[in-house]
Design brief:
By secondary structure, the chain is an alpha+beta fold. It has 4 domains: about 5-200 and about 280-365, 2-Layer Sandwich (Nucleotidyltransferase, domain 5); about 200-275, Actin, Chain A, domain 4 (Alpha-Beta Complex), CATH 3.90.640; about 365-500, Substrate Binding Domain Of DNAk, Chain A, domain 1 (Sandwich); about 505-570. Helix content is about 35%, strand content about 30%. Strand 10 (about 110-115), helix 3 and strand 11 form a beta-alpha-beta unit. The structure holds adenosine-5'-diphosphate and magnesium ion. Adenosine-5'-diphosphate binds near residues 10, 172, 204, 308 and 309. Adenosine-5'-diphosphate binds near residues 173, 201, 242, 243 and 313.
Length: about 575
């Protein structure tokens, strides 16, 4: 039974498998490798995932959700139809759709998966990703850091070379930078940094805002005043314009404004680069931090690897080229790299013979430690300081210990609180749990305790606290996190999602085609609109006859006309 690799992205998700010929991407029902991470309800109340849902973001914004990866592990939830969905639920629906695509392609049940997560995801977000997998009926064998997966995809191409490389992944909503070293087939992550709130979508937002201001120069907040549908339409067109500017120097599109007037909007590459300057500045910091954390200088980097759809923007490429005085490599498709690497990891876990000589180590992506009281003046203690025990970027599995003393003589217990994060005060870090340690009453001396942290590859933290005078040990396994789903909650979500009506996979092509037609209808006026309405009528009639052959013929017939209308709205 195969283990699949999954890149669960903010914008797009992919599924892959490791074969005798290496990593292979699996196409979805539309024949695409990229499945937009969008979930919606059809007019019949069925759950739609992927391109059809993405297109319906424009026509049915209230019935569609996207960009929910940002909320993994939080209490955020959104209404879709009559039910509320958390980010884990929506992700589970995407995972379920990918699972069905893989099952269709492989001709077998798929139950085990490797899922990639941004290196910067904290423990709560990682557990939420595992939960999403479980809700979708997948056993998540392991999570893999996205940059590690990217390096793994590239590393295998060039196994005999020793090199230090920097992976820069600018996806839709996250930015990840990692420094990896490859030596004798061993791949080690030396440092990772990033920004969980920076991605290609932010560039789209800036372009959208720019166009909104163009439409109505007097009202800067025009976007807020637009109807949800209009705003979604403008954003969709801005997104296409942004992508087109990666290969062209100027782009224009037609937009029907609130008063049903058709407006032409344009943007040059130079202007785009000017308005995105603030975002470009934000890209530099995590890159510099990763290089510094690894104890390197820019000139020590042998290769710069580009990952993520947003690295297609020439301005991002030249920024990186300037920083490293070298041209980044991108011989693998930047959209596919992570899924390819996840498949390699799946091959490693299933001990595929082609991967015998590859070993890989990973790092703990964040610092783990405890709260500490510090004596700020004689006899005066201040709580709330953070004591790191396992530092960020330590190679895992790892076990580290420190010895702490009781604050007062005669103290009979210690409440040890455990945190994750990089801030000097625990209040600004993520609380993971606590353990109470009984201490024998000792009026003469301060008692000593040995605190040992052990962190393994699957992200489980074991805390052992030993009172040195009695050798008594307390143990804590960190599982319960704020916002994280408990096992019974996961089971309940699994059952609830299982009851949803999922749009049949073999009708996905038709649903996506209809969504495209409807979106095009929204983007036009007058005769063009009438024309598209006629095409919709033709397609609906074919659907009503329920003959597969006729339906596919109708699609083929309509396709060139629809394509022509799509080209007419953006040029
Ligand atoms: P994620 O990993 O977050 O799912 P992807 O790696 O799929 O994201 O990248 C998606 C982002 O890449 C989106 O913001 C999309 O607009 C952007 N993108 C895709 N193609 C291009 C392009 N040709 N030019 C500029 N941006 C692009
Ligand atoms: Mg990605």
């Amino acid at each position: 039974m195969s283990i699949v690799g999954i890149d669960l992205g903010t914008t797009n998700s992919l599924i892959s498998v490791f074969t005798d010929d290496g990593p292979k991407l699996i196409p979805n029902a539309l024949g695409d490798y990229l499945t937009p991470s969008a979930v919606g309800l059809s007019d019949k109340g069925q759950v739609l995932v992927g391109q059809a849902a993405k297109d319906r973001l424009v026509t049915h914004p209230a019935l569609t959700q996207a960009r929910f990866k940002r909320y993994m592990g939080t209490n955020w939830s959104q209404k879709l139809g009559r039910k509320h969905y958390r980010a884990e639920d929506l992700s589970a629906l995407v995972l379920g759709s990918l699972k069905r695509d893989a099952e269709n392609y492989l001709g077998e049940t798929v139950e085990r998966a490797i899922i990639s997560v941004p290196a910067y995801f904290n423990d709560t977000q990682r557990k939420a990703t595992m939960a999403a997998g479980q809700i979708a009926g997948l056993k998540v064998e392991r999570l893999i850091n996205e940059p590690t997966a990217a390096a793994l995809a590239y590393g295998l191409n060039d196994k005999d070379r020793e090199s230090t490389f920097l992976v820069v992944d600018l996806g839709g909503g996250t930015f990840d930078v990692s420094i990896l070293e490859m030596f004798d087939g061993v791949m080690e992550v030396r440092a990772s940094a990033g920004d969980a709130f920076l991605g290609g979508e932010d560039f789209t937002d800036i372009v959208t805002k720019y166009f909104a201001e163009k439409l109505s120069p007097k009202q800067a907040s025009k976007l807020d005043k637009m109807s949800a549908k209009k705003a979604a339409m403008l954003r969709d067109l801005a997104d296409q314009a942004k992508a087109k500017l990666s290969s062209e120097h100027e782009v224009s599109f037609k937009f029907i404004d609130d008063k049903s007037v058709e407006q032409t909007l344009s943007l040059t590459r130079a202007k785009f680069e000017e308005i995105s300057e603030g975002l470009l500045k934000k890209l530099r910091h995590p890159i510099q931090r990763a290089v510094m954390d690894a104890g390197l200088r820019a000139e020590n980097i042998d290769q710069v690897v580009l990952v993520g759809g947003a690295t297609r923007m020439p301005v991002v490429r030249s920024l990186i080229a300037r920083m490293f005085k070298t041209f980044p490599v991108h011989n693998l498709n930047p959209d596919h790299v992570i899924a390819m690497g996840a498949a390699v990891q799946a091959g490693l876990v299933s001990r595929h013979k082609a991967l015998d000589d590859v070993v890989m180590t990973d790092v703990c992506p964040f610092t783990l430690g405890t709260e500490l009281s510090i004596e700020v003046a004689k006899g005066h203690h201040e709580d709330g300081h953070f004591q790191p025990i396992i530092e960020r970027n330590t190679v895992i599995p790892v076990s580290r210990s420190v010895v702490n003393y009781t604050m007062q003589k005669g103290q009979t217990s210690i409440d040890l609180r455990i945190f994750q994060g990089e801030a000097p005060r625990v209040d600004n870090n993520v609380y993971l749990g606590q353990v109470n340690i009984p201490i024998p009453k000792n009026m003469k001396k301060h008692e000593a305790v040995d605190i040992r942290f052990t962190y393994d590859v699957s992200g489980v933290l074991e805390v052992l606290v030993k009172v040195l005078s009695t050798e008594k040990t307390n143990r804590l396994i960190i599982e319960g996190n704020p916002g994280a789903l408990s096992k019974s909650e996961i089971d309940a979500r699994f059952k609830a999602l299982d009851k949803l009506k999922i749009h049949p996979r073999d009708e996905t092509v038709n649903a996506a085609f209809m969504a495209r037609l409807a979106k095009s209808y929204e983007n036009h006026l007058g005769d063009a609109r009438k024309d598209i309405q006629y095409l919709i009528g033709v397609f609906e009639a074919a659907l009503a006859r329920q003959n597969k052959h006729e339906i596919s013929e109708a699609r083929d017939e309509i396709e060139p006309h629809l394509q022509a209308y799509e080209d007419r709205s953006i040029f």
